[in-house]
Specification:
Number of strands: 0
Low-confidence stretches: none
Number of domains: 1
Strand content: under 5%
Distance between the termini: 37 Å
Radius of gyration: 13 Å
Number of helices: 6
Order of helices and strands: HHHHHH
Length: about 110
Amino acid sequence: MSATQERDQAARIAVSDNASALRIARNIGDPWFRCQALAHVAWHTTDHKRFHGLVAESLESGWSIENPYRSVAVIAWPVAALARRSYPGPDAMERGDRELREVIARLT
């Protein structure tokens, strides 16, 4: 199965089987698709602490990409996960702000 297919599978089942989606996401070898898959899993995680851990894991995967364009582009996924929470709270907003500042710094 390709990394694209694994990402899509994780995204598809994240709503109904978050644990299985997480296992799939963590096993994706390509950091681009792993970052996206982890962001999908985070979007569908109800536990606040776990959500932030998954966002951090997704960010780590995205920032590990050596090509600056690709890295910054894929970071949009976990940043969007932070923004999509119905009640992100101050810690999510602070984390989102921090990551957006990092994106800007890497672009300049």
